Amino acid sequence: MTIESIFPKGVLRPELFMGIVNTVTANTVQVNFTEAGAPSGSYYSGGRYGKGEVGEFVIIEGQINLVLGRVVEVKTADEKYNKQDTDALGRIQLLGSVSMETLKVTPGIEGYPRLGDRVYATPHKLVALIPSLMDEDQNDSITLQMGFVDVALESKVAIKPEKLFGRHLAILGSTGGGKSWTTARIIEECLKFDSKLILFDATGEYRGIKGDEVEHLHLNEPIHQADKSKKCSLPPTSFQESDFIALFEPAGKVQGPKFREAIKSLRLAKLCPDKFPDGYIRKINQNKEAYNQAISDSNNLSKMDNPTTPFDVDLLVRQIEQECVWPDGYNDTSKWGKEDGNFSHCLSLVARINGILASPALNCVFKDEDNSSLITKIEAFISSNNKKLLRLDLSGISFEYKAREIISNVIGRYFLNQARKKSFVESPLLIFLDEAHNFIGKHIGGEDTVAKLDSFELIAKEGRKFCLNICLATQRPRDITEGVLSQVGTMIVHRLTNDRDREIVERACGEIDKAASSFLPNLKPGEAAIIGNDFPIPLTIKINIPTIPPESSGPDYQKSWARHPEEIE
Length: 569
Known about the structure:
By secondary structure, the protein is α/β, with parallel strands linked by helices. The protein has 19 helices and 24 strands.
């Protein structure tokens, strides 16, 4: 499709004439509008044009190229406003340049308007084509139908996945702004192609997504399960030492060292079951011969210090007790001594370990051995040729003991490690992280044993080069670290009413300024601004309604609080 076929009569239509430039500055121009004082706008080619309304895109007929801008302020030339032909002044923010021949849109101003240059409303179809007109290669066939310019339903906006996900994506918006609907719509569009998607569903609201290409897995017992969802476990062998430190939080100068030594001893016991048949190493008043023989093997010694080497976590309390021992017996270095009295300092840690091992929040880790391993299911999904979306339902995992954050971090690190092995080069993997503020920027523990849950942060920082991209969805951008948001190349921003949230977006995306962000609090539900490195010209669109909307609505008080008919006299 050529430009001539889309705009056979050109884009500067006399019917869309708006006014004349009277003032030019470095980033704005002031215009005398001819119809901004009229009681209503006008219609052209099936679409409504305000011809001087705030938020409207305009084209200025420049001397070299056309200049694309947006109306950010309208006022009357005098204080009286009682006539239809009242003179109006408008301030237009300059956004970019448009080639007169190809209509290619580029950020920056190649030639500033002159006084007296004419200003026209931008045809809605041209506004919808801005994402593709900014692209160097306009011949790619795979595009995602995101929505339409709100004032013209026929002006559909399509975006290439490279532009949307290539440098990671963030979907931001206050509660009720349409963030979940946008996520569901994007997933539906991706499923039309040969994609590989992982959805971390924190609340279970996406359980309605169906299809032969969709697989649902859940941990523990969510209140609402998707049809054909399979229960899985996450075995402790998936955890690293840092995960156990985050989970059990050893504190003080005694608990931390004893905890780490206990883990190392349990690893050695698992590596040498013939020497330690009990599964742990007895040390109190015991001979060191078997221990010394085991660590004399350099292979065992290196695996002892490897944080990924598995061990039996059920024996952790017993081993901690055995670590509270004098290093040598009385005048006898061939065996350990008696108890050193430090076990009393570890009693709070022991109580926490016992409580966590018995907690229902972590049943999927310590008590669901009969269920399929989540890692095995993920590996099968990645190697499958007919599965496109794997939804991980985390709603059954409570926040007790930070279980949901830690488990999500473990799963995220698995994907990162696979990406580092270049497992996704042939088939890029896209992770959707819903309620991302619950999982990013989290630190657990005290000063002595602080553990940083940074799997998703590392994916944002280095996953792109390994064909692993992430889509963050959150209603609290201020809780996402700036280091992560600065790695996000594209943002779909719904209504943001909090000043701090808007400031975070401004700092994370240098292409948006105060004039553009001032529109964010007034976006309607389902309406969003697309901004970012590949979208230096912010574009506001109405997101298409997903085929299967997420279950994100609140309680229906009209129905729940209604009196039963038999109670009414």
